[in-house]
Amino acid sequence: MDNKLCxxxxxxxxxxxxxxxxxIEKYRKKNSxxxxxxxTFSIDVDGNNFSGKRIVYLWSSYTNLGEKMxxxxxxxxxxxxxxxxxxxxxKRMNLYSHVLPMFGLKxxxxxxxxxxxxxxxxxxxxxxxxSTLSNIxxxxxxxxxxxxxxxxxxxxxxxxxxxxxxxxxxxxxxGIEYSEDMIYSYLEIYGYLVEDYIRRKLRNQxxxxxLKSQIPVHVCGANWNIxxxxxxxxxxxxxxxxxxxxxxxxxxxxxxxSKVVLNISPNLHGGLHERVxxxxxxxxxxxxxxxxxxLEEFQNRNVVELFSFAHLKNLPGRIKKILCNEEEWKVxxxxxxxxxxxxxxxxxxxxxxxxxxxxxxxx
Length: 363
Known about the structure:
By secondary structure, the protein is an alpha/beta fold. Helices cover about 50% and strands about 15% of the residues. The protein is built from 15 helices and 13 strands. The protein has a 6-stranded parallel beta sheet with strand order 9-8-7-10-11-12, sandwiched between helices. A 5-stranded parallel beta sheet has the order 1-3-4-5-6, sandwiched between helices. Strands 2-13 form a two-stranded antiparallel ribbon. The relative contact order is 0.15.
């Protein structure tokens, strides 16, 4: 096997980022795929020190990359997880990019839908939102802090968690004139903490709604003991914690034994989180918040169940419907597996990024 592929992979949530990089290289070696030219595959941006062609997969959004964005080159093949980052790159940096979801990891322990023991599974840590508000007040200059808090309150009131819309609407409400450049500058520098607050708040709100509705929720990740201690005894018995630092392989195995996998990704306004692709390829019904990309990707396909943040009170009933109608949802589980096996695989991912980057391969 040649050594023409250089991987530059940072650490990431539950080791996922590093895992996906290694999975790409494993696929290439297993299939004896040779590269005609030197290729660097980087997840997120790692300066300008690379050889040959470079494919940059932006795992983080532009609000979380900051100065690293300046390391992108016009010659890079840039691939993002969402349309928002794609638009930002085009408008602010005059860089073209593609949108591509990350592939799913298939467990070797997939169970029949009717034999699965976990009703609802959510992989992700428990994070308290009030600490993020404190950080906003500490980190932001007062004017920016006022805009951040005002935007958050507008989004909470309207139940519209699109960060750009929240900031524009708040500024208009206050009679403050703004330009598109000003909004993008604000999002680039200050957007991350606002997004982090919204993500934490909605994640906690949804988990609490399900527990209060007596729906057993299995979780993994850090700090769930903090939530457990806050719950009433009547709610504690519905929360099951599988560990703090599970590998992505262990998470995949849990999904393969789950009927419902919950995805809460309010910051991914125009893309598909890897929780969705991994749930599908393991036959779980992914219950996920909707965005324009998801609506288009799954149009007329009964493979995921969508919910709106504006109607969270309906969510427990919809999940109970899945759990109580196994025959109907078993069929949808099979459809999800079929679509994922034909779309969200490492082979398809590799072939697509090679095509976009003009990378020539041979065996």
